Amino acid sequence: MTTEALQDATGGTDDTAELDAQLQDCVAQGTVTPTRARYAVNAPMLDMWADAHGDPNRVYREAAAAEAAGRSGVIAPPTMIQAWTMPQLPALAATLSQVPGYAPYLGPNGDETGEAKETAPPNPAAAVHRLLTAHGYAARAATHCRQEYHREAELGDHLVCETVLSSVSPRKKTALGAGYFVTTRMTFRDQLDRDVATVDWTVLCFRTPPAPAPTASASDAAPAAQPAAAQAEPAAPTPASGRSCRPLAKAPQVGDRTPVTTIPITPTFVIATAFATQDFYAAHHDADWTRGSLGRTGIFTNILSTTALVGGVVTDWGGPAARLLEVDLRLLAPNHTGDTLTLEGEVTAVDGDVATLSVKGLNSLGPHVLATAKARIPVQD
């Protein structure tokens, strides 16, 4: 569900003119909002992330494997970059009256910058989310993410994220409901002020259309739900046990395809990956809230996990020495529990040792993600 799929749209009308002006005033401020990660890059969080996503790349866990792949030690998955500065669950709970269950612009402790409130500069992104929620655009759906990686974060690195509100679209009429696309740019640096990554992040803030009232005949005729073994979650929670990460045997060529990755979208997978990416938005763990507040059939995967899976398609294929340079993706159909996601990539360009791949993910509703990824792929003997 995203930008291309959702922008069958109209701009703001007379009744939104005042809100539109307030939103553009926030963009014009251009204020940088710093957020310091609560924790340095650490092994427990790396293990949790790799376990939840079923990522077999040992450079995220073992120093010897990382050194054999040309690193000085264990590295953090590049696609994990946003997890280090996401707010904690208590912080999100405290913001429910402002932005229900969604506040990636907050510091880890729930304040707007990670600093004391009396010294905090204005936070235009927070102001935009509050304005939109106050005007009824309270639901959230991440739609687009472009991550560019400048260096790999290592164990012990302590990251700071500087966020700038890039743009707010005119009001759009989308398949999810009328809303606004809000884009922020996040720049991540380490404790030595070295650039680590740049992230452009777009979220749709929308009004959920009212659910149609059930008819008496439909409710009377519906048989009582019966437990069924086919509806139960599989006992084994491992999301992608067939994945492997081995050195590439030959130089990449245009037309090369990656192995197919198949992911059962179980409740375990949705919740584990959301929490491993530190995303506590209720739509990724609370089925009752998601049905009641968003009108969805149940919980669904988050964009951070989809980014991790897209990056994994590339590094599983390219091997432990592969270095991700960029992942640019758009979300379309959601991954609800009970579905299956199938991912595959194809090399579309090669420039020296840098390969560009097109990655597509499909589920029963159609395309879930369309992505482009770039990686440096040294071929090992």
UniProtKB/TrEMBL annotation:
Q: What is this protein called?
A: MaoC family dehydratase N-terminal domain-containing protein
Low complexity composition bias: residue spans = 214-241
Q: Where is each FAS1-like dehydratase domain found?
A: 33-89
InterPro entries associated with the record: FAS1-like_DH_region (IPR039569), HotDog_dom_sf (IPR029069)
Q: Where is this region: Disordered?
A: 212-259
Q: Which domain of life is it from?
A: Bacteria
